[in-house]
Amino acid sequence: MIKIPRLAVAAVTGSVLLSMAACATPSSGDSTEPDYPNRPITLIQPFSAGGGTDAIARALAVEMEESLGVPVNIEVREGGGGAIGFSAMANGKADGYTIGLATGEITTLAHLGQMTTTPDQIVGVAQVNAYPTAIVVAADAPWENVNDLIEDVRSKPGAFTASGGARGNLGDLGRAGMLDTVGLPETAIKWVATDGAAPTLQEVLAGGLDLAFTSLPEARALLESGDVRALAVFAEDRDPLRPEVPTLKEEGIDWASGGWRGIVVPAGTSEAVIERLDAATKEALETAKYKEFAETTGSTVVYRENVEFQTFIGEQEKLFGSLITKLGIAVD
Amino acid sequence: MLDHLWAGLELIMDPFTLLLILVAAFYGLFMGAVPGLTATMATVLLIPFTMFLEPMQAIAMIITLSALAIYSGDLPGALLKIPGTPASAAYVDDTYFLAKKGHATGILGLGLVSSAIGGVIGVLALMIMAPALAGLARNFTTYEYFWIAVLGVSASVFITRGNQIKGGISLLLGVGLSTIGLDIVSGYPRFTFGADSLLSGLNFIVVMVGVFGLAEVLNQARLRKIAQSPIPVSTKGILRRGWSLSLKMRGELLKGSVIGVGIGALPGAGSDVAAWVAYGTGKAGIQRSKRPDLELEKIDLRPYTSASASNNSSLGTTLVPAMVLGIPGDSITAILLGVLITQGLLPGPQLFHTQGDLVAGIYWVVLIANILMLFCGVLAIKAFSKVLSIPRAAMMAIIVAFCLIGAYASNNDTFDIGVMIIAGAIGLAMQRSGYPMAPLVLGLVLGPIIERNFMASLQKSESLLPFVTRPVSVLLIVMLIAIAVGPHLYGWIKSRISPVHKKHAQNVTV
Lengths: 332, 510
Fold this sequence. Notes:
The complex is a heterodimer of chains A (332) and B (510). In chain A, 42% of the residues lie in helices and 19% in strands. Chain A is an alpha/beta fold and 332 residues long. In chain A, strands 1, 2, 3, 4, 5, 6, 7, 8, 9 and 10 form a ten-stranded mixed sheet that branches. In chain A, α2 packs across α9 and α2 (52-68) runs antiparallel to α10 (288-297). In chain B, the strands form two sheets. Chain B has a two-stranded antiparallel sheet. A two-stranded antiparallel sheet of chain B has the order 3-4. Chain B is globular, with a radius of gyration of 22 Å. Chain B is an all-alpha fold and 510 residues long. Chain B has one domain (2-496). Chains A and B meet through α2, β2, α3, α7 and α8 of A and α3, β1, α16 and α21 of B.
């Protein structure tokens, strides 16, 4: 009989001490909920462990822990080209303790009919990077630049093959968008479905495919060794780490698309929590350690604060939504 | 080259690095030996830790732990009939049967020594031929990947003991189950019944834990044989016995290692396919020449030896496509590649020039890991045999707990627990009707590789012709035919020439 109250007293004292300790941790901005965050945060990462998204999630988590003062644990929820992880992010409790590192695919999967979760079930907190699509060819390919390629495609529609992943992935949509911009049908360059950038590049090297639609960091090793060349990158500006590759717009083709990554939370999360997380993300991106990580991995930091990021997600969704409808590749 | 080798050795011969290698070895052994936990999962858990290490130390830990985890996956296979990897599923029937008959020491010793020798041959191949092996990958397109996967699945049917029709049915069931999930060609979700968790298909680890682990527990519960005495294992003289046995089969060892080296160098094929193909060719070999002195309880040890050597020899060369081309073949090399890149080391042919010391260091690590495997392996067998002295009933409960944890941990999804339980029930039903389980697992692993490469090939050429006209394809088809009909043809010819077969004299003692 005596032991139980003692335990209760100890528990109460303990939790009081703990919450005092939590309050004592410096928190930036008093507009946030007074004690957020006071326990570990789970960061959902939707692709396979050890991949590019995973590496960024882990590097970011280490820095965000510093700023938030609580552990940020990575939870890998891979599968369905991101659909499983995105659904887990959207269905988490909107209390700021379940956050996610979303990728560009979150704007396409629902339109493709491959995910029941829609982008309005999440709120963008902060964008962390961007990896525009690029056209990569074998070193001995006959084309000097992207206009050579387009001309060749125009005279021999359907003669060349390309990949970069599954049907309807960002590379495929980038290809379709580029062809549409120059007035060619989607079928002018044949899309071959593969498992992603690695097998695509292997095929391009072995002569099995003509073109790879992947990001520049994914092809980095082969670009450095001179085994492959990049004809153009689908970005607004040239990649600072690869300034020799022209943008599609510079070459006179008005199209830009590609992937991005950013921190998101379930819809309904309070403004204060979002602001706190945005600030922590921004701080993390600005640390010397993260900058070094971004440079060595070739992942260019592109930061958008939450309102701007939210608008960007909406625009991307509209862009890809109309493209997917036009192509008629959605599953009903 | 020699300079690099010395400098590489110096990189490794740092007390802290050696300590990390030792820690990684025991960690890998543990993770591999627990049913449901895998080398990949062990590597994933290590990633945050590697960020604080020097590149060489991080790489050394990952390589060592994966080598040891892949070996120790054989232990629960032999002693509990729960293979740790799809590769060890190739010979789980042989090893479990022999262990039950009281030959656990001999069979585990043989496996340990042949794995280590295979591993060392793999390193030598890596040292001498890394750039040439990278060239191999450059000649492989979707047509060749298709054939190599077909070779793998065909081997699984061919090696089925007893009824090969049942083996074939089991394989087709596995291939059928592999079609669940998102079809990458059309983007259409197949057989998902609206469940998001099925979009990525069935996880083969989860299914494997169910059809082998849970099914075996259910089977023993049904037979009420739970009181049966534990499998006796003694580690006394295990290496010596393993060594003398494997010396007798040096031809098989070499063959298995060459297969492992070749298949390991192809991104995406890896040690699983290598083990099955090696087992299949080994099996084809024994039809040709009976060697009663290499038999144990009427089971020829050569296919097992060959497969054990091959999955470890492939480990060295799986690094080739990652290091030379920057193209990772499986999740472990993908993680390793990630670590290399985060440490500022760019994979590619130039890595061998600019980071020659580091590359030589990697060779040494693979070598050390394989030697360490011999000694740590003996300790692991010893520890594992202690586990087996736990009362059988309690053991079964513990296995069920590990099956549940393993299924959940594979993707932090409770849905997978349900998949594992259903797989267990199906596994039990199949076991009772005499269907082998291993082809099902391989079908699940290789089904998508076959389908995707077949579809990609058709999309590229819109014709079936390149499947049979490309030189490497033709070579693979010839191998396929040789494995499938070779032994029968040989047996037929032989029976025409000398109808009298000499009966074997004595069995080998282990």
